[in-house]
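RECORD CONTENTS
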Amino acid sequence: MKRFKSLKALSINLFLLALVSLTLPQEKVFAQGDLPVSILLEELSDYHKELEKANQLEKSEKGLELTVQAIPDAYVYYMARDLKKLSRAGYDDARAWKEIKKLHTKHRKVIGKVLINVKADTEKGVYYFMQKKPGPHSLTQRTKKTFKVVEEIPKAKYVKWQVFQHPPNRRRIIKNITFARLKKTTWSMISTTVSLKKRDPFVYSFSNIVRQTPKSSEQGVNESTRQLSCRIWQDIIVKPLKFEYFPGKWKIPSPPSELTRILDELNPKKKKK
């Protein structure tokens, strides 16, 4: 009799356990090699923003503000950013995975390469000009690190300007110089020479920037005639903004598990054994 009661109690407990398990959220089962991509995308965090802030430096000079973000792996950053955008599309697993593979094909050429994002902002009512493209600013003889600009928004337009110098007690000097107007601009650069394994620093220097106010007497800017006037050239040159980085000491935030699962599936050779 006691044995019968114990078996009956066991059956009831098993039934209750099965009933409870049915009420709990179930993880979707997929075939081997497949991922619940739509679920992973929904739960994806803004990891790309964490990467932006982890090694971010800011400086300003005469109303020119520069923000520089050093990101250890351009591929991880771009995939995290674009997957977050993709998560808003609401695709099913098949369509989402198809789009993910397109992103992988687009960004896989920058796997393991260092990315530098630069954001420039300028004082209102003042003219700022670049004398050369953003990329060459980063070249430093000291460390011989090079960068290639891969994105620039908006793209700078270089045109010839007449520059009039009025030095005291000297004759007026006129020169033709090619400038690009610098306003609120962002650009991204990829480096193939910077390594996280080495501790030698590199310096990103943003230089040869001209600053002048709108036209006033013999000094200023006349945009319609593309003429710029100053007392002497040194008066309108902005002091270089320099950013020193030590790649071997960079902070690298831990990626979310959802992103890791997707990237591991795309890059099977990099899966941890």
Remarks:
- The longest strand covers residues 173-181.
